[in-house]
Amino acid sequence: MKILVLNCGSSSIKYKLFDMTSKEVIAQGGIEKIGLKDSFLKLTLPNGEKKVLAKDIPEHTIGVEFILQTLTNPEYGAIRSLDEIDAVGHRMVHGGERFSKSVLLDKEILEAFAACNDLAPLHNPANLKGVDAVSAILPNIPQVGVFDTAFHQTMPDYAYLYAVPYELYEKYGVRRYGFHGTSHRYVSQRVCEFLGVKQEGLKLITCHIGNGGSIAAVKDGKCIDTTMGLTPLEGLMMGTRSGDIDAGAVTFIMDKEGLNTTGISNLLNKKSGVLGVSGVSSDMRELEAAVAEGNPRAILAEKMYFYRIKKYIGAYAAALGGVDVILFTGGVGENQATCRAGVCEGLEFMGVKLDAVKNKVRGEEAIISADDSKVKVVVIPTDEELLIASDTMAIVGK
């Protein structure tokens, strides 16, 4: 069975084609700059070589059509005919409270998803464009929606509600939803297979650390709390996002800088975080290089970045009533040993003991804690696309 996974953003479409018999990726790539004059598709050939195909792509339907043409291209395609694609799985960002699991997409489901557009005005409409594009080109193919917020729907009300007037939750759905749900769900399942343990009884903290970052407290395989909130802005310090900030500080900045809601949103989402503090970059690799050169603001940004992660691990150990496993994933979590070491330093009182040699791992599944560590510290590379493909296959079933 072959499953095409699409992740549609406002100006991009990422894709992977899986052969689910072996769970092998047989084609992958992405379109960038949809609607701009220099749009292109970048794909990875089976031998690992990258190829860039320039094409005018004014909107998503043409983009999806170009991806399908590329998949069947005689020179660098992966399949002979589109008939070989059995289903399409979509990453859907915000499912609100309606969606706690992946579903087969139909008219009623899509209307319910569109009703969540206010909660994710940039992402949800783009996701819908991808679904509509596939429907226009391949009207008979089944499509499945896998929701970024679904995994976090098991949070109790006292964890997801904000201490604002309750009617704001009733009228507008103002609450914590959480994001990176497909990643947190994948790694929380995979770590049990890797360690040979059951989800039941396991107290797990999953740290998805990248340019965007979030942490989840997972008990018995279910999320009981997570750091991102109504939007992906809350929680950890990120590449360009501020993370947690006093709401009073937000209104103070707005008054002093003469910013409207769009202006403050732009400042907190795109100009803050690692970039805003360091003045160097939002990329942790570039920050690490600046730290090595002794840049004082880079050093400060790194300390703040690690501290926020450490603080939430401590908070979630309390929420869980202890912790058995701390898991790192995401671009930074999987690859940056200094981040993992910086976060775990000072957690010895909890029974965390890192092994400096084991911690040198990059992008591989590994236990990086010492043999006598009471808490296992693990690296598990995330594979959200595989989870989406697996959910799609389970729902479509052939």
What can you tell me about this protein's structure?
The chain is an alpha/beta fold. Helix content is 37%, strand content 20%. The chain is built from 14 helices and 14 strands. It has an eight-stranded mixed beta sheet with strand order 5-4-3-2-1-6-8-7, sandwiched between helices. β9 and β10 form a beta hairpin. α1 packs across α3 and α10 crosses α11. The longest helix is centred in the C-terminal third of the chain and has 25 residues. The mean pLDDT is 95.
Terminus-to-terminus distance? 8 Å
Question: In this structure, how is the largest beta sheet organized?
Answer: 8 strands, mixed
Task: List unreliable stretches of 5+ residues.
Answer: none
Can you give the helix content as a percent range? 25-40%
Estimated structural class: alpha/beta
The neighbouring-strand order within the major sheet is: 5-4-3-2-1-6-8-7
Number of helices: 14
Q: What portion of residues belong to β-strands?
A: 15-25%
Query: Based on DSSP secondary structure assignment, what is the total number of beta strands?
Result: 14
Rough outline: globular
Backbone CA Rg = 21 Å
Strand/helix succession: EEEEEHEEHHEHHHEEEHHHHHEHHEEH
Q: Kindly report the average pLDDT value.
A: 95
Notable features of this structure?
398 residues, 14 strands, 37% helix, alpha/beta, six-stranded mixed sheet
Task: Describe the secondary-structure layout.
Elements lengths: L1 E7 L4 E7 L4 E9 L7 E5 L5 E5 L5 H12 L13 E8 L10 E2 L2 H8 L9 H14 L5 E5 L9 H4 L5 H7 L8 H15 L7 E7 L3 E7 L2 E5 L20 H11 L3 H10 L2 H6 L5 H9 L3 H25 L4 E5 H6 L1 H8 L21 E2 L8 E4 L4 H13 L2
Parallel strand pairs: 1-6, 6-8, 9-12, 12-14
Antiparallel strand pairs: 1-2, 2-3, 3-4, 4-5, 7-8, 9-10, 10-11, 13-14
